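User: Could you walk me through two proteins back to back? I'd like the raw sequence and the structure tokens for each, with a short line separating them so I can tell where one ends and the next begins.

Assistant: Of course. Protein one, sequence then structure:
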Amino acid sequence: MTARAADRARYDRATAHLDAPFAIVDLEAFDANADDLVRRAGGKPVRVASKSVRCRALLERVLARDGFAGVMSFTLAESLWLARSGFDDVLLAYPSADRARYAELAADPKLAAAVTVMVDDPAQLDLIDASRAGGGEVVRVCLELDTSLKLLGGRVRIGARRSPLHSPAQVAEFARAVARRPGFRVVGIMAYEGHVAGVGDAVAGRPLRSRAVRLMQNAARRELAERRAAVVRAVRAVVPDLEYVNGGGTGSVQHTAAEEAVTEVAAGSGLYVPRLFDDYTSFSGRPAALFALPVVRRPGVGVVTVLGGGYPASGAPGADRLPAPYLPEGLRYDPQEGAGEVQTPLLGSPADDLLIGDRVWFRHAKAGELCERFDALHLVEGDAVTATVPTYRGEGHTFL
């Protein structure tokens, strides 16, 4: 029996009392992935990206481990909810236009001490000030650096379109503008190199593309390390008591942590290890989050139909954004139908061994987005479900 077949048997035994569809997290794999992130971070703290977890119980579990410190959130409403739930170091990774929540933040000393918001434009500061509604608390802010690699004099850009602040001079000038403005305090710098941390460099069947990605990423790492160090020096000249410099992501933890200028790294997807992280040479993890769909039809030889399954991930549309049939091994989508909203046909010889009511186990393409489809995660240890915990959705929150 292969390791994957053994996992399938174990998951089937553990969840025999449950009716699919449902989602699980294998805690042994989750904890092993957490240990690997800490190892790769080389002594620098790992800030957990909540959008890749979306479950308070699992955020608490990982933050209780040595090597992890703080949360990187994805909306202001989520940030305040986490702070009220006891998380005392929450960095909002994206700018917000949520005026009502800014008013809450500026009026509450506990929230203002626990939550840091992301800015990269004076207009964002204007919006926060206009939202204060009399609240006088100082708002902690983090400055985001654009990490994109610019070639040929800027005519070619590689990387996400995020912050407009690219050069050390631009970031330092914005830091001065914030420092001069009452009601704000610069506490950090964030630089997320998504074109390094979030792009696989060993895509099966694409050797030339994979080599090109590796060459690009090597060049991007070198350029960003030099520029990030210069940015930090320039900002520290304005804000000597800067608390942290955050960088990285699951796919680049060890490279980013090696930079002297970086004080902490961010990661979250590496805890669940969704299918998009199968194509990396920098690390390998164990799939920890899966969902099960029931077989409801057997249309013919070599085909079964499962209930549901149309759970595409965000990003540029493509086959790589679909969940992947994982267990039993050897199933694939019908190219004429793909993953359906209500039913999904699956092809392959393993279909002939599946009966009505059996489960097919899938891996989502991205990490936390799985939790937008399920209100609970069943936590598996060995061959038993030892706890069932709510996702954000299960607690009544769909933040975005």
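----
Protein two, same layout:
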Amino acid sequence: MLDVVDIGDRSLDAYRGVAPDEQLDELVRVAQRLRGARILHVNATSYGGGVSEILRACVPLLRDLGLEAEWKIIRGDDSFFQITKRLHNGLQGAPGELSETEKALYLGNAQLNAPHLAEGYDFVIVHDPQPAAIAGLVHHRSSRWIWRCHIDTSHPNPAIWEFLTPYLGAYDAAVFTLESFIPPRFPIRRVAILPPAIDPLSPKNLALPKELARHILEWIGVRLSLPLVTQVSRFDKWKDPLGVVAAYRLVRQHIPHLQLALVSSMALDDPEAWDIYEKVRAETTDDHLIHVFTNLVGVGNVEVNAFQSLSDVVIQKSLREGFGLVVSEALWKGTPVVAGRVGGIPMQIPPGIGGILVDSVEECADALLHLLRHPQTARTLGASGRERVRHHFLMPRLLLDELLLLEALTENAAESLVAGDVGH
């Protein structure tokens, strides 16, 4: 059996006064037309990444809207997740190939998990490459299968892409964050462009009283009498944590007492994170103003909330990025962001809103220094970013777009491209 993820109850009414009313009203209308539909979400982990955070919010809300929604995770051992991490990196353009043994192990895992998806669902939504091959091994009957790709696959490694492509043809539709992410010779005819979103009512994003947030950070050793910049992200080469450290050290030449926090969540399906973590620790261990925290030492959602709320600037210096939920998380708290000009980040930070986009270590340092020296500019950018997130990147908007896609699949609509309203 696949593992069923336990989730709590959620009510859409709780989002009144938080998300725009017109989105909530339309969401209720669309859900009524799909009422009773059976929806299954499948991914590789129940914690430690943006996909699991999205599912933890959206599945209970789907149930509140009258749909029969479930969330299950596939099973796999360390060898499998080592392979899927290489697959994940290859889809983002990293060099290398899978050996025949590794390909067989990946497909063997799909064959082990596929029989447990034989239950009746109207829609099965499979997230990212780890479980992607399962669709071709399951008799679909009347169900519709959707592959949701959360990463930038615009320029995949040809060898990796050639291996995965045949297994995607079994899907009825695919979802990407940006149209530019659709790989060459994509085998799925119907494609929807639906940016992700954050849950404003999760423990990570609820409004924390300032005094409580201060107490949380001081409890774990952050000195709030000194300026603070933070990057919240997985320890992943694409997030460039060592580049963040390099930019921070350039800023330290001008602001000697500046603190840097690198905050991460270690996930079951990301074994490579430990290697990056060790490199970061080796690079920063002698600097008492650099704080490295993970969920394994008790720094979880509430602590992340406090960091994003109280940091002078949040950094997301990605080299490749699917969307970057942490950008919207920080902006939702009114905190300006300095971020890499990649993937879905520019969608969240258009010119003059939310923060500053950068393309190098030096540009990152210059942007940080500018915002630290001009706090009123920083506050104005943060405030404008919060409004952008409210209208375009909160969970009800994502649910509305997804249900419109499911409805279109039910009706066998003719359009080959369904574009979400991303409010450029």
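Confidence is low (pLDDT under 50) at residues 413-419.

Let me know if you want the two compared in more detail.
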